[in-house]
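Lab meeting, action items carried over

1. Structure of the two-component assembly. Owner: GW. Status: complete.
Input record:
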Amino acid sequence: MNPSYPQENFHHTTFATSSFWAKRRSIVRKNTLHAQLEILKSTGRYDAFRLKWHPTYEEGYKALFWDSDVGKWLEGACYFLAEKGDEEGDKVIDEAVKELTSMIAGAQWEDGYLNIHFTVVKTGLRFTNLRDLHELYNAGHLIEAALIHHQHYKNNLLLDPMLKYVLLMHTTFGPGPGKIHGYPGHPEIELALLRLYSRTGNTHAYELAKYFITERGNLLGVKGQHFYLAEAKQRGEDPGQRPAGDAWPTANAFWYQQAHKPILEQETIKGHSVRAMYLLNAVADLVHLSRTREEDSGEFEKYKTKMYLTGGIGAIDQWEGFGIDFFLPQSTGEGGCYAETCASIGVMMLAERMLQLDLDGKYADILELALYNTALGGMSQNGKEFLYENHLASCSKRPMKRESWFDCACCPPNVTRTFGMLGGYLWSSIVKGKDLEIDVHLYNSAVLSFEVPGGTLSLKQDTNWPWGNTVTFTLDAPSSLDITIKLRIPSWAQPFENGELFTLSPSPIPSLKSSKSYLILTPSYTSLYRNTLVTLAFSPLTFQPRLLRHHPSTNQNTLSIARGPLIYCAEDIDNEWVEDHFKSVAISEDTKLEEYVAQDTILGEDFMKITASGVKVEDAGTEKGSFPGFDIVREKSVKKTDVQIVFVPYFYRGNRGGRGHMRVGFRRL
Amino acid sequence: MNPSYPQENFHHTTFATSSFWAKRRSIVRKNTLHAQLEILKSTGRYDAFRLKWHPTYEEGYKALFWDSDVGKWLEGACYFLAEKGDEEGDKVIDEAVKELTSMIAGAQWEDGYLNIHFTVVKTGLRFTNLRDLHELYNAGHLIEAALIHHQHYKNNLLLDPMLKYVLLMHTTFGPGPGKIHGYPGHPEIELALLRLYSRTGNTHAYELAKYFITERGNLLGVKGQHFYLAEAKQRGEDPGQRPAGDAWPTANAFWYQQAHKPILEQETIKGHSVRAMYLLNAVADLVHLSRTREEDSGEFEKYKTKMYLTGGIGAIDQWEGFGIDFFLPQSTGEGGCYAETCASIGVMMLAERMLQLDLDGKYADILELALYNTALGGMSQNGKEFLYENHLASCSKRPMKRESWFDCACCPPNVTRTFGMLGGYLWSSIVKGKDLEIDVHLYNSAVLSFEVPGGTLSLKQDTNWPWGNTVTFTLDAPSSLDITIKLRIPSWAQPFENGELFTLSPSPIPSLKSSKSYLILTPSYTSLYRNTLVTLAFSPLTFQPRLLRHHPSTNQNTLSIARGPLIYCAEDIDNEWVEDHFKSVAISEDTKLEEYVAQDTILGEDFMKITASGVKVEDAGTEKGSFPGFDIVREKSVKKTDVQIVFVPYFYRGNRGGRGHMRVGFRRL
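Predicted assembly:
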């Protein structure tokens, strides 16, 4: 069974102009695409495929990812070009895409090889360091760009070079004699190859991806040795030495790349979080290709002990990845917090895949959580500034501050392409003969529309999500189809007074059925109410501010504020009195949360601010005796000053200047 | 002004036979010295100075510290030999000391050089890697052994070779042309050299130590480069590579050795905790040699934010050292805890030195805390098993378990020598003409006795410390002396009903004076009550169990139990129901603490166990919705089961078998 990809069906969705996501996608189209194009040009990335020397190449490995930076931008650009919209702006983008396509094709070697670094800088050393140098990661992003390029332009100008490269890779890597028995340090090519196969049936791509995934972590892969060890020795490196750069905590720590053992034998998730996500996504695709919907595979359970309540993953700065279970400090100044934007995009990708394998609201909850908080928060309201790390609290060494770009620029264009394909995340559909099922995962005013036997299906949803508590649906489809619609019920929904989590009108008869947090509108219901407004309403309580805590095993004795799918944070710009990144500010579980409407001038939209009463605690701990531990009886005399704390959505942080003080989890009084 | 060293004046103290510390010192003498001698022999360390090949030398750097292992044992042995005691056992120890002395002298090169590794294994590479290979650290411990050897045997058989080695070092290292402008990666030689100078007036030793201390961290020391960089390049190493072994988190992380900048410019304490302590001790000695008593230098304030409430320091396993401020998780399974035994011994050493520079009870509190908890706890009750790390909680990967020895064996013989010189930690004395001051830092039944003008001074203290609340003193001294006695008042003392922290009888007239938590018995008082029983009594409350918390900035929302200077912990052997290292067990600040007398069969002594009522909390966190954060309103329904928890002193842990579950800080309910 073929997976369905947001990248492949995003164009079935049209966002209502004034909806939450339409506004943001419009900003990406009007601002982000252009701003990032300018940066690609000014930093040398744009012209790099012309294969001339660039001064950055002197600076170690800074330019290693340039192919992928361009690839991700190209991919994002094509999603937006595929829609009607900003004609004048699109012309600029369209021309750049065409020029880049031509440059990329021109940079290809006769034998199909294609990579800037190993053509211009390290000629002759291609495929000698798969572990560290992102060669195949770059290829993967170029293939992903080629797939949407082909879909949009309906030509092969980018896809053909990539197919030629795939052929070279297939000749180079694999189990056979004379081939390299290896796989990349940073997964991505696997995702690209499997989607290429899914679209084109290219079996080379499938074989190669399957080999990369299943060979990974083979401890005896090359003459009885781990491939990365054999590869390092081949380069003349001492295997007792850690590679340059400081990411590996110990020598041969192959768990950094999830290659310490075969993926099916890995009991927990470890190492670099983006690599882990991309690998798991590829595994999910491979599984999907070989089976039908199955039971919960438990993938997410493995790392819920390693996920922040913002949907961020990865607490450890050094290897940009996971710590031990429940090790989730809020900031660098409190022991670590990384939560890379790309990793949360990886979480979204994996959640979407899991929903296809096992339709369970728990995956949709995580998808929504990562989307509204860490992924959306990775970009500023004006679409021109970004975050690489998504700390839950700032500290003096890492104040809250957005940047227009990064040397290692994976995150900004990853946000661009994710918003480009966003329509594909809202819902998924399965057609089997005259049976059709639509699963609605995310609520936002939009129309899903695609061709079906006998005409066009259109499902419209209308809502003020994430602020409001109702969603209305209108279905228009040929009467010959038996249509099931499944509507997600968030786990955070609060019940009405009668204990029900939602109402549906018109009400179905005999009664509502649901499965794994999806409400099922059966074919008899949908045929009865075709072209009729159907309303799903949640209790007003569902969209009132609520308090969250971290799991007690995290040792985070904190309270955080959420409202619907949004996590909230406090910033100094609303709380001028703050001096210490809110470290000394506590709230109690009895604090009264009040919300009020505020206006964002950039997007011209209303949103909700929340206030809570708290106290500033003057611990003066070390003065209460010279013991590092303090007598609890003396704690009663600690001085406390009342403060009023204003909270804004976490994604909204860092948009209004300020002194860089920000916090999600407040000490619990 | 010369520092006074516990190593130099320990023999002025005679412990009362049945006192807390006498029992433990007797165990060290009867068990530990012999058990460690057997291990030195069976592992090859004892005979290593015969300079024959040993199979361990094939195993990388395992034998690098062997000189110091022998040196520390030698030092410890001599302290005990200097006292009357176990005649038969002492004969064995005495013979071994003599044989080792002869072997060490025989292993010296013609030019004075003395080191096993660079004689047998890496001949010709001496002094080419001061940064990593512990060459001078080894020399330091041999010098420390030689000083007590000389004092006890009154011969130069060990001291002369070491003086010859010092001469070679003085020719080799220093600011002059042709000399190595370097210093060791692991301080220790500095301490040894300064004490050698203090005893013998050897100016080479002084110059060398001062050079090592002040040159350390010079960023431009060798041809405009940091010495460690220049040294690495000299060895043909790539400075971008981290050294073998995994301790350095990043390349050229010279803060690991506190050599990233000159010590006076270091604003916080970082890196390997034992190195840090030894360096600071050497700095304190250098300061002491150049001045008289001064104001609080604030040394301890720097790292109270990095000290566990047990007196342990160092949260990070990788570099056996400090994390950021307030990063103090309780176990490896909760993010890290190291708290090496040697580091706590370093804390004791530094606290004792600080008391000489600035008599303030806060240093004595820390001295006592580290002594009774992490240092004492580093050895089992029978003196034959040890702990390298002093976690505050066990976890499945690091269950609570003692070992008879370690490959890297720094801690066991460090405990031995510390108990050997323990008498020197109890009190210090300053004689100026006919003015004499005795500062009593630690309470334990013992007699201080030394020659003074006109006869012998003797100060006897009698107490059941750390269990009882009174200490009695009897002073006998020539009446010609004006004697001031200062008695420490612990910061954890709880007041009597009238608000006083203690009573003294007979009462002084007009009134008591005290300064920085030391009660001052003036010459007029001590002359009045010479040969009279003087009693210092604390409130019974002072020795009742009390609750401590970690500083809130540690994010440790825990309660711990203390009683007097002792921190308590719970173990599975007293709490058979425990299954999860007490992670799910919570106590409230209202819990009733009750104590009762228990008997230790090994030492045949009574001690106090404490019980507290708590609850086992079944969080089932992840089932309360798929969000990583949980609604606080749902927390109320969490299941709680009452449990009774039995606590024993932290030092007592791991002495009675069991399943390895142990914890100090319990979740706060």
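2. GW to write a short summary for the group page. Key points so far: Chain A touches chain B through 67 residues (CB under 8 Å). DSSP finds 17 helices and 21 strands in chain A.
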